[in-house]
Amino acid sequence: MSDADATAIRDDRGDWAADHLAGYLESGGARGHILDLTDVGGRNFTTHCLIRCQGRKSGRTSVKPLIYGNFGGELVIVASKGGADTHPAWYLNIRASETVDVQIATQAFEATWREPDDEERHEVWAYMTHLYPPYITYQQSTSRRIPLVMLALGRPIDVFTP
Q1: Member of which family (predicted)?
Q2: Which of 136, 139, 142, 160 is paired with 86 by a 20 to 30 Å CA distance?
């Protein structure tokens, strides 16, 4: 999928994404953690976390809501960008940092990250495509290998604020 196509899809759903983020932040995580994504090919109980990271170039802090799974006690997020040909900025920003902040519902943590390799990656990918089947189509629409990021939760921090 071209970046332009992916941008058009995100623009079409932009208000939805902004509303989701605002509701998650304004409620302190009481809303927005679990969403019904059956209208876009997902599951009716799809879990979402928030990640907060520093821009590697801009230095600005950004918060993104992302689907997550729990695999072997670590959170997994997928750098799909809807199947675009380039990685999402949040993924590049995480790669430039040792830690990332993550909020799950009403709890937040500092987390370390890693990317699974080989057989583990295969198992994690199968798990995440089961949780959110559109990831399969996203991978088919791009030549890049969609990254998986594993997060190990560390010390608790304050929940994110708007």
Answers
A1: Belongs to the F420H(2)-dependent quinone reductase family.
A2: 160
